[in-house]
Sequence to fold (758 residues):
Amino acid sequence: MIPFNKPYLTGKETQYIEDAVKTGKISGNGKYTKMCQDFFEQHYGFKKSLLATSCTDALEMCAILADIQPGDEVIIPSYTFVSTAIAFIRQGAKVIFADSYSNNPNIDAEKIEGLITTRTKAIVPVHYAGVACDMDTIIELADKYGILVIEDAAQAIDSYHIGKDGRKRALGSIGHMAAFSFHETKNIISGEGGMLAINDDRFIQRAEIIWEKGTNRAEFFRGEVNKYGWVDIGSSFLPSEVIAAFLWAQIENINDIQEKRKNIWDAYYKGIKEMNSSLISLPVIPDYATNNAHMFYLVLQNIDQRTQFINNLKSKDIHPVFHYLSLHKSDYYKNKHDGRELVCSDKFSDCLVRLPFYYELSIDDVHQIVNTITIFYNK
Amino acid sequence: MIPFNKPYLTGKETQYIEDAVKTGKISGNGKYTKMCQDFFEQHYGFKKSLLATSCTDALEMCAILADIQPGDEVIIPSYTFVSTAIAFIRQGAKVIFADSYSNNPNIDAEKIEGLITTRTKAIVPVHYAGVACDMDTIIELADKYGILVIEDAAQAIDSYHIGKDGRKRALGSIGHMAAFSFHETKNIISGEGGMLAINDDRFIQRAEIIWEKGTNRAEFFRGEVNKYGWVDIGSSFLPSEVIAAFLWAQIENINDIQEKRKNIWDAYYKGIKEMNSSLISLPVIPDYATNNAHMFYLVLQNIDQRTQFINNLKSKDIHPVFHYLSLHKSDYYKNKHDGRELVCSDKFSDCLVRLPFYYELSIDDVHQIVNTITIFYNK
Fold:
C-alpha cells in the first residue's frame, strides 16, 4: 500500500525530547525553541522567528499584530486552507476572496488591485505547493496603498522568490510577516506546529508579548523591565519544548530531506511528462519561483475524471487525494461572499489531485505510480 | 540545588511517540488523543473531553462556545493566571474581577451575586492549587440567573468536590465546561498542553467543529455528513499526537504520581504545622474539597517577609517562588477596572509563596526545606 503521506522520523527526535526533559524545561520558549528560531532567522533571513503551536496560530498572531478591527478587509485566495480565512475572521475581518491563475493555484496578482478598498488592511498571498506568488507585484500594490503583506507560507519552507532586481529571497522573508506550518504533511514536521516570521521591526516587541499570553515575560528575562505582568491581549501561542525538540531533529536533516524530496518530484514530473497526455496538466513553476518539492499535483479535466482517477489508483492501493474546496462557496461563507465568480479556484477545487509524497517514497514507488496512471489513461 | 519544579518522565513517553510516528499519524486527533480523551471521560465523568494545545486555548474554546459577544461580562477572580482573563477578552468580554476568600485564594462565592448584571454571561471559578471552589453556591447562582459556569481547572486534575447532596464529583465535571492544563508544572504534563471538558450536551457538536478549524471533519469521519467543509469559526486547538503520546505515558502513571505527590504534600504540611509559627498560614482545604497535591504554598505576613523568606531559601539553594499578581491592578487592566478594592487578592499577591514541588522531590528534601524554614524563623 502506498499512502498519501507518511511522517518521517530522522532518528534523533526522541533523543532530543529526552534531553529537553533533562534540562528541566519542557514548557515553551526553552533551549530547542531558541535553536529552531535561530536557525530559521539565520538561514532564511527573517528578522524574528517565533515557533507557534500551528500555522493557524501563527496567522492569528499576524491578524492581531496587523491590528485587524471589525470591518477591516483582508484579501486572500479562495483556493486555500480554511485557516488562512478563520485566523483573520476571528479578529473581526471581512475576508475578500481572490481568484487563482488559470494555470497555477496561487492568487492571481493582476486581479488584486480591483479588490482593494479604503478598508483593506492586508493581502495574504498563499504560496501553494511551496511555489512563490508574484511577490514583486504584490509588494508594489501594498506599498502603493499602504497595506500589509502577510505571507501564508504554510507549505513554503526552504523555497525562494527571485525578484525583478535579481534578489533571491526565502519565502516568508518578503512580506511584513509570514506563517509556516510543520504539520505532519509538510517537508519538516512536528505533527502539529507552526512558526511566525516577522520582517518589520515595528511588530517584533508586540509579537513576543502576545506570544506569551499578553505578558512582557521576554523583556523581563532579558532584564529590560524589572517585573513582568499583564500588558496586552494575547494567547498561549508557543509550543512545548517536546515539539521544538522534535522539530530540531528535522531541521538538522533539512538538506537531506529536501534533496530526497526534489528527486521524488523530478521523477514524478519526468514520468508524467513522458506520458504526453493532453488530459493532464503538470504543475507550473514561474520563472520568479523555486521549487521546494512540497507536493506533486496534477490538474485533470473535470471532477468526474478526477474521481475516476482517484478510485482507480485506490483500487491499486495507491492513495492520491484532492485538496481545497473554494472557500467562497463554503457553507460558512457563501452568503457572505459578494457573488463574484472565481472560476480558476473552482477549477482547482474540482480538478487538482495530489500524488503520494513523503521522504520514504522510493523512486521505484514513483515509477509504479506513474505506470498505474499511464495504464489508466491508455484504457 | 532544589529547583521549584522538575518535569517528570515516567519512561514510556518517547516509546509512545515513536509508536505514534509508526501509525503514520502525528497530527492531531489520532490514536493517542482518543486514548487520553477516553480516559478523562471515563475516569472523571466529563461528557466530552477534547485535548487542546494549552489551557489558554481550552478557555478560548469555552469563550467561543459560550457565545461571548463584545460587552458581555464574565466574572473571574483577580488572583489567577492571565489566561483566565485573556481567553474571554479575546472574544470581546468585559472581565469583572472578584475577590478571594481571606484564608483561601479561591473566588469568594459569597461575593459573586453582587457582581451579576444583565450582561453577565459566565462565572469562571478557578480551583486554585487544585482545591475546589464552593461549587454548590456557584451553581445555584448560575441557575438562578441563567449564567454559564466555566471551571478553570488548570491545576485541578484528579481533584474532587463533595456537594451538599453528598455527591463527590471530579472538578471539571460540575460546570457547563472546564479547562485543564498539562503545562510542565502540573501533576501530569506534556510540556505545554490542555484539555476542554464539556458537561452540557448543547456544546459538544460545535466544540468538535471549532476544535478542527471550523470544519465538520469529525462528523465526516463518523459518516454523519457526506463531505466536509468550512461551517463555522474556529482555530487549530488540537495538539500534535507527539503531545498526546507523551501525555498518555503520564496518564498511565497517574495513580503513582498522585500518591507520591500526596506524600510530599503531607510531609510539608506536617513539618510546617509542627513549627507552630504565628507568622505562617498553612493552606486551607474546605470540607467540600479534596486535595490533589498540585502545589504546596504558605501565606506569610507581608511582602517584605516573603522577599526575605525567598532570598534566604535561595541562598541555601532552595527555590521557592511567588505566584500571581492581582489582575485588576495590572498595567493592562488597571484603567478598565471599576475601582473596587480586592484586598484578599492583593494579600495573596504579596504574601503567598510556593515551595518546591515535583515527583522526584524526596521526603528527605522536604525535611531539609522545612528545617531551613524553621532555622530562618528562629533567627
About this structure: Chain A has two domains: 13-252, 254-378. Residues 13-252 of chain A form a domain with the Aspartate Aminotransferase; domain 2 fold (CATH 3.40.640.10). DSSP finds twelve helices and eleven strands in chain A. Chain A touches chain B through 62 residues (CB under 8 Å).
